[in-house]
Amino acid sequence: MSDSQTPRSHQLYQEALRYIPGGVNSPVRAFRNVGGEPFFVERAKGCRIWDADGRELVDYVGTWGPAILGHAPEVVIEAVIEAARHGTSFGTPNPYEVEIAKLICDWVPSVEKVRMVNSGTEATMSAIRLARGFTGRNLIVKFDGCYHGHVDALLVAAGSGALTHGKPDSAGVPEDFAKHTLILPFNNTEALEKAFAEEGDRIAAVILEPVPANAGLVFPKEGYLQQLRHLTAKHGALLIFDEVMTGFRVAKGGVQKRSGVTPDLTALGKVIGGGLPVGAFGGRADIMDYLAPDGPVYQAGTLSGNPVAMAAGLAQLKEMERINGWALLESRGQALEDAVRSALKETGRNLTFHRIGSMFCLLFAEGEILNVDDVKKADFDAFNRFFWHCLGEGVYFAPSQYETGFISTAHDEAAMSKTAEVTVAALKAL
Ligand code: KE4
What we know:
Bound molecules: ligand KE4
Oligomer: single chain
CATH topology of the largest domain: Aspartate Aminotransferase, domain 2
Mean pLDDT: 95
Strand content: 15-25%
Number of strands: 16
Order of helices and strands: HEEEHHEHEEEHEHEHEHEEHHHEEHHEEH
Shape: globular
CATH architecture of the largest domain: 3-Layer(aba) Sandwich
Radius of gyration: 21 Å
Distance between the termini: 16 Å
Strand order of the largest sheet: 4-12-11-10-9-5-8
Low-confidence stretches: none
């Protein structure tokens, strides 16, 4: 995509670079993984977005997950307008908070009590602090390739060996923080057993994306989540599912509903805000009651539970239930998978397509892909060429091989057939 094809976005980007670090308010939007410049979006509706140069694009990023009903669904827009008319934030409890808390407790198996926050990062950060406060332990286990937001304790990379304690994965994270985080390879049962054998009574919690979707899209091996549940319970450690991305998307109750594995705490975000800034963390009541004001673990937020964001989230979740959105997402996801698989067959490309419900990833790698180490073997140049070819033809996939794509209930026939056509052409052109 040359700047001449998107002159207005190019101009906006040059201006943005003057006032905003990297020209963006979140790094992935800068397209650094695929090269080139980002485009600026001016409006979105359903499965389509329109950029500053008027280009219409079929959108498979869905603002990184929240747009499960597509962009600007009428029910959400009306709920936001209605709520905003009565005030945007009160700094006091409001009825919306009670309604959404009840809905989350009813729908998500692990959640007996829930606290609203303003992002997925806040949700995982708070869940970690709560787990440490509840257990009186410091050590947190996470998995290489899983992303949980920009939490100091979790911006940690695997040390030299699989079982060494972490080292900071970002400037500004003190070594002292990283040493309390142990990084394990995902889907490696021996590493898990060894870690618990050596450090089990020091582990406060294990946090993971139960279906990792920030390093490509990979699936837990048969029995892996059950093993995690068994080992954490056996050693008095908590199990935290980061369902910021999968919650309310892969099923009404998330991965924990589909898998039957119930964590002690769950982090949520994205879909529950209907596109507004919302996160949440919840779980066993005896753990959640450790939170201020009743308990010793402090956590707070000026805009947590604000009426407008709650109204947006409630409208989205209730609409998903009304239309049984999960069945719709499964059928659209299957249609996309069929189209991609026939394109791969037609073009003789031996690539790997992973999908769970409306989340998918076309991995430019062959063979079994079990964790981020396998994804790192992908052909990133080929992915980049595929990305730009599709974008040039009006189909916007996530601008990184490490990111997952999202389908919404608004992805219509026309969008899906255009996607199939463009995918074949892009694979042929590789
Ligand atoms: P936020 O703080 O960005 O709301 O949520 C952090 C987060 C936590 N847990 C999981 C599993 C997540 O995927 C995320 C954020 N996801 C990225 C996309 N992979 C958001 C996009 C961005 O960083 O701009």
